[in-house]
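Protein: SDR family NAD(P)-dependent oxidoreductase
Species: Novosphingobium bradum
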Amino acid sequence: MEFHEKAVLVTGASSGIGEHIARRFVAEGARVMGVGRSEERLAALAAELGEAFVPHAAELSDMDAVEGAVNAAVARFGGLDVLVNNAGIAAMGLALSETIESWRKTMAIDLDAVFWASRIALPHLIERKGCIVNTGSLSGVAADFGLTAYCVAKAGVIELTRCLAIDYAGEGIRVNCVSPGSTLTPMSAGVPQVLTDAYRASIPMGRQGQPGEIADAVLYLASPRASFITGQNLLVDGGISAHTGQPNIPALFARLRG
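Structure follows.
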């Protein structure tokens, strides 16, 4: 098993992509502390995965709670090999309608917590020549309508990834980012069908991603197979980022001919 006895901390582990990341690390032999807001869901996951998974409920908009989660993982495992900063929230909002409370909470969870968890974890990761994998977003690479705070926060995560990568490469630390496109998670379950159809129509592969596919990318970047990869943002988006956004001209001409 690729991560046998490695100590891993995963934030946002109570559902969706984070849950799949935690499951994959456990399956590969790691000891995982999963951090999330839902104590109930984390407890259920711990009951299923056994002693290899340690639940830790925390509100990651609180930097003291972020620090407490990292310190709890180090105390439990005796050190840390991998930090996965995955927790995130998103809320619709334009510059003229976004409240300061919504802006600050998005920044706190999506960006500040990534910085603070990394800062607290770095001395322990340096001891073991460990690594950090952050969850960014396609929305951090280009803008989405009506998601100003989320897009800005995720762009910050991607740039923070690069900064940490070059600053700590000499200490043996690798820092990378995985940026999903539209992915089928519990968060997307309540999205109206018309929006789901629009997402699928925009993806060259013709479907949304699965959480396990994002988890696969995270585990690869955390593994020795990626030993010469740092400061990178891996887009897992079904090909959206390869597209200019212009119409599918051959398809339009085919419709006209039909």
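Remarks: The two ends are 54 Å apart (CA to CA).
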